[in-house]
Amino acid sequence: MEGDCLSCMKYLMFIFNFFIFLGGSFLLGVGLWVLLDPMGFREIVAANPLLFTGVYIILALGGLLFLLGFLGCCGAIRENKCLLLFFFMLILFIFLTELAAAILAFLFREHLTREYFTRELKRHYQGHNNTDVFTSTWNAIMTTFDCCGVSSPEDFEESLFRLISPRKAVPEACCQRNRFLGDVEHVSLEQCLSGSMAFRHNKGCYSAVVDYFETYIYMAGALAIVVLTIELFAMVFAMCLFRGIQ
Fold first, then answer.
1. What is the SS3 assignment for 200?
2. CA dihedral angle for residue 56, residue 141, residue 208, residue 206, rounded to 10 degrees
């Protein structure tokens, strides 16, 4: 009976890790295709810092899942105690990292307030500067979510941006774009930069981002619980299989 349970656990673990292996391979393929695509898709992604960072996150996640699935499959089907132990240690490391990230997010939650982001925006945002990571990230956020500033366009008053560009009330990223031309041209750039409310985005990015992700909060919470549960079961299965191998 014990041998049948061990055999069943071995094949279940192999199937489970095979799907993880396929998922990692798919993510790696997508990430590499975006970076190496000869049709110029890489330039489109590179123009948006958020998307460009996302590509490398996909590559890292794909590589981790690929390695995890490979170790799990080989360790289960070959009944290799060394591979199973390595698989267990890798899952444990991921689990502890996620736990530490959750604790740090709770401890530093006050750094995610409107006041904190507004203070940082006033101190570091430069306007149209693609070489500065902070500035280019904010430009990407304001362009993507059709917003301006943290709470409103007034956040740029008495800021570094106004010191650098005293004639501009808001940066170009705050200006409305012509939807019929594929968001390439601004509706009225000069009037927007001079402070006209009719040609700029007046909603703050804090509210825009929160509203956008609000619908995904419950989904993300449920997904996090599922992932943690799978990791716990994977560690238990790996250790039981490890101990059952003679």
1. strand
2. 100
CA distances from 21 to 17, 18, 67, 87, 144 (A): 6, 5, 7, 13, 33
Q: Half-sphere exposure (CA, 13 Å, Cβ side) for 139?
A: 20
pTM exceeds 0.70, yes or no? no
In angstroms, the Cα distances linking 157 to 58, 94, 117, 145, 161 are 37, 43, 14, 21, 8
pLDDT tens track for 19-35: 888 888 888 887 787 77
Give the three-class secondary structure for 177: strand
- CA dist 241 and 65 (Å) reads 20
Q: How many CB atoms lie within 10 A of CB 166?
A: 8
Q: Phi and psi (nearest 5°) for 99? A: -65, -40
